[in-house]
Amino acid sequence: MQPQGNESAADSSHHTISRPTPTEFRRLVSGPQENIIRAMDISSPAFEEFKKILRDQAVMVLDCNRFLHEQIPHIWAIYMDWAREELASFLSRYTDAWPVELYMEHYLSKKTYSKRHAFKAKTTRLRPALKTVRVKSSASERGVSLLPTLVGPPPPYEEHDFVQPDTAAGGDELTVESFLKTVNPDLSHLLPAFEEVGISSEADLVVVRSWAPAVRKDFFERELTGRMSALQIQALNVKLGEMN
Q1: Can you give the pLDDT at residue 168?
Q2: CB–CB of 108/68 below 8 Å?
Q3: What is the pLDDT of residue 100?
Q4: Which pLDDT value is given to residue 65?
């Protein structure tokens, strides 16, 4: 596989494309693949070939039903070593083979979230409808409604609760700003910083909520260093853990 960007293969040896900044990297991960193509400076056909090679190997080595941060570290290291060798000529244009990490995180994030979200929605539809039971209290003749104990399959994920925005309480879509206002202390003034790292909707919050607490803490310390105090990061982490 040869580079097919705006520069010739001969020129590519004299020009190395640096890794995007952390903020730009997060935007590329959560955005459309057209943005990745532009960042890599290659043609669409070359990108299609590149991603096919990565995905064909990924199904044999990685767990493609998990996010990148959920992969077994030494298995991911083996995959990266394979990519550097298999695509050595192509990746010579890029610092530390960053397109491999970028595309795979983009691919695994969208694939995993979509599958878990669909499964959650499916099991929700299979749950029996709730029926109210009319009973009379011994202390009062007024009828009261009681909800019976729900009988059905257990929640499919103990650590991941993927819900659609329109199923939030009250039917209103949760915004990042409204969520940040519920944190104690109020973090709504940090909305621009969250948007810079790619967290701009409820779906993005759900993805971050799915991460282990330690992963969330590391992410915010790395991406928002100098903009959030240790107290604010801890308060945010706790609130994300309580998010339904």
Answers
A1: 40
A2: yes
A3: 96
A4: 86
In the block, residue with structure tokens 């701009």: 200
Q: Choose among 36, 69, 29, 2: nearest CA to 210.
A: 69
Lowest mean pLDDT among 28-37, 42-51, 119-128, 191-200: 119-128
Residues 153-170 pLDDT 10s = 444 444 444 444 444 444
Bond prior to 153 in cis (omega within 30° of 0):
no
Tokens of 232: 């604010």
Q: Which two three-digit tokens encode residue 104? A: 């795979």
The structure tokens listed for 171 are 């039917």
Q: Read out DSSP for 123-156? A: HHHHSPPP--EEEE-TT-S-EEEEPPPP-SPPPS
CA atoms within 13 A on the CB side of 239: 18
Q: Are 56 and 49 in contact (CB under 8 A)?
A: no
Give CA separation, 40 vs 3, 15, 37, 83, in Å: 10, 12, 5, 16
List b or e across 78-109, with b for residues whose CB sees 16 or more CB atoms inside 10 angstroms.
Answer: ebeeebeeebeebbebbeebbbbbbbbbbbbb
Give the DSSP letter of residue 2. Answer: -
Q: DSSP secondary structure string, 59-125?
A: HHHS-TTS-GGGS-HHHHHHHHHHHHHHTHHHHTTBGGGHHHHHHHHHHHHHHHHHHHHHHHHHHHH
| pLDDT value at residue 124 | 55
Check pLDDT > 50 for residue 145: no
For the record, the structure tokens of 121 come out as 């929605």
Sequence-ordered list of residues with C-beta below 8 angstroms from that of 75, at least 6 positions apart, any chain: 61, 62
Q: What is the pLDDT of residue 41?
A: 95
pTM of full prediction above 0.85? no
